[in-house]
Specification:
The chain is of the alpha/beta class. It contains 18 helices and 19 strands. The two termini are 33 Å apart.
Length: 548
């Protein structure tokens, strides 16, 4: 295991520098995980990125770095406890190595600090000049000659200081692509036939919009930047009336604005797919950090009662497949679905191999009724769905309605329609467990650790440092909730890991199963769990409650 940390100010190319280094490790055959920590500022502030690599699969990053570059002494002071004993660190400072003066003397601005960082790490990793320059050329299409000149200046100073160098071993591997979670969520939706994506940017969901906009011609998907989250949700719901597979995405604050349209989708039975990537709240909260405090909100969003499906990926691979599943399920059941994730998965990057051949599209029911009724009463609650062009009148209604879509306030008809939607939820509850993996267990014996969402990544990595045998149980589908499946694992004492002070996930388990966790390991400072610290806390809980 090896970790590289680069820290500095926004505008200095910190994230890009680590991405280039991650690409080198990817080409060298390593599993990688990149974490980017940044403030909501365009220039200044404090940013850092970490890439952790290993010849075995890496599920999350480590805060303790083996190699580090700091663009100023203030960054070093922030991270001095994040440097391992045997690490090699380089600081851009007049009392250490004054790269800034060197850049200024050669007409380079602060944006070239990122090139300096790449030069430092590539030097420490003992790359040849040819290897380094090839990677820089590949990664930076603009200012190619100036980038190389900056690299050579930095490299020369490092040679003069004679820093220790370590050449890493390279491994043969099947070619892999580095993607972040949001890209894989978008690709999963495209796999399931996404036609239209509309949203208003809100971190950490924004890059879904940006990625799809860049791929619109290639995949034939219409992408629109709406004027607000309210507009985006209503436009996405309206697009489904025409037969377009539509989706929208935001974070908790944006989804709060979408809840009226979310309820609209529940009433009109629109197949609306929503992606919610959580960050700390309430209100603006910490806009570039991670949390799991929106669980209750998403499960209960909207007014009135209507069926929904909510699932949360715990790995990059699941992000891809769950996104496709939820778009399919929205159309199969004609009801809103939500993919609930967090910044830790959305914006972190890895090179796990994704197999698109695992995706099997749901076969949508064909409508043959002579007299078409948009909201026909059925035993399973699913009414026939037609979209233009059609010879029949297709009426969607946000008011309570008769089977043909005409508004009604009449008691008997309203009761029938409410019960029809309820039967649909019962059908969902029976269907999803038969066709999809609702829960996943990692490990064959030992105490049970229950988690959901991106905490799985941290827990899987932490498990490498836990001496006891454990079983990590991940809940994938949150609505419907896998009560029977989970109960087979929590007959005895169990531990929950989540990122919510109010223990929302723990309380959900208790509400659904009647069982209480023996210990809840919580994080709520906006930062994901560090695997080493999480392993220690988990082992302490195991030794207290399970070792006799």
């Amino acid at each position: 295991m090896l970790s590289v940390l680069i820290a500095g100010k926004a505008g200095e190319g910190i994230k890009k520098a680590v991405a280039v280094i991650a690409d080198y490790f990817n080409q060298a055959g390593y599993s990688i995980f990149q974490y980017d920590d940044y403030q909501s500022v365009i220039k200044g502030g404090h940013n850092y990125s970490i890439v952790s690599v290993d010849k075995h699969l890496v599920f999350s990053h480590y805060m303790l770095a083996d190699y580090a570059f700091f663009s100023d002494f203030a960054s070093y002071e922030i991270h001095q406890n994040h440097i391992s004993e045997d690490s090699v660190s380089v600081i851009n400072d007049k009392n250490y190595i004054d790269f800034s003066s060197l850049l200024k003397a050669n007409n380079f601005n602060d944006s070239f600090i990122g090139i300096v960082a790449i030069s430092v790490i590539f030097y420490l990793l003992d790359l040849t000049t040819e290897e380094s320059i090839d990677l820089i050329r590949k990664s930076f299409r603009k200012n190619e000659e100036k980038n190389i000149q900056c690299y050579e200046l930095s490299f020369k100073i490092l040679e003069e200081r004679n820093f220790p160098r370590l050449k890493i071993e390279k491994y043969p591997f099947k070619k892999r692509k580095i993607n972040n979670g949001n890209t894989l969520i978008a690709l999963g939706a495209l796999m399931a036939g996404l036609d239209y994506y509309v949203s208003y940017p809100m971190t950490p969901a924004s890059s879904i919009l940006h990625f799809l906009a860049g791929q619109s011609e290639k995949f034939g998907v219409v992408v629109q930047h709406a004027e607000s989250e309210i507009a985006a949700a209503n436009m996405a719901a309206g697009a489904t009336f025409t037969g377009a597979r539509a989706a929208t995405g935001s974070s908790g604050g944006g989804f709060a604005l979408m809840t009226e349209a979310f309820s609209l989708a529940g009433m009109v039975e629109a197949p609306l797919y929503v992606i919610v990537s959580a960050r700390p709240g309430p209100a603006t909260g910490m806009s570039t950090y991670t949390a799991q405090a929106d669980l209750n909100f998403v499960l209960n969003a909207g007014h009135g009662e209507f069926p929904r499906i909510v699932a949360s990926p715990g790995t990059f691979e699941q992000a891809f497949h769950l996104s496709a599943q939820l778009l399919d399920l929205a159309w199969y059941f004609q009801t809103p679905t939500v993919l609930l994730t967090e910044k830790h998965l959305s914006e972190c990057s890895g090179n796990q191999i994704i197999d698109p051949d695992q995706y099997i599209a749901l076969e949508m029911p064909v409508v043959h009724e002579k007299e078409y009724k948009r909201y026909q009463l059925t035993d399973n609650g699913i009414s026939p769905l037609k979209c233009p062009p059609s010879h029949e009148m297709i009426k969607w209604n946000s008011n309570e309605h008769y089977e043909n879509g005409i508004r009604t306030d009449e008691a008997v008809s309203a009761k029938q329609m409410i019960e029809k939607r309820y039967r649909k939820q019962q059908t969902i509850n029976e269907y999803v467990p038969k066709h999809y993996e609702m829960l996943k267990c990692y490990g064959e014996e030992g105490p049970v650790i229950v988690c959901y969402g991106s905490t799985l990544m941290s827990m899987l990595e932490a498990s490498k440092y836990i001496t006891n045998k454990i079983r990590i149980v991940q809940v994938i589908y949150l609505e419907p909730f896998p009560v029977d499946l989970l109960e087979t694992y929590i007959q005895d004492d169990f531990i929950v890991v989540e990122q919510s002070l109010y223990e929302q996930f723990t309380q959900l388990i208790k509400y659904k199963t009647g069982r209480s966790a023996k210990r809840v390991i919580k994080g709520y400072d906006g930062r994901p769990f560090d695997p080493v610290i999480l392993a220690r806390e988990t082992e302490e809980a195991i030794n207290e409650f399970f070792t006799h």
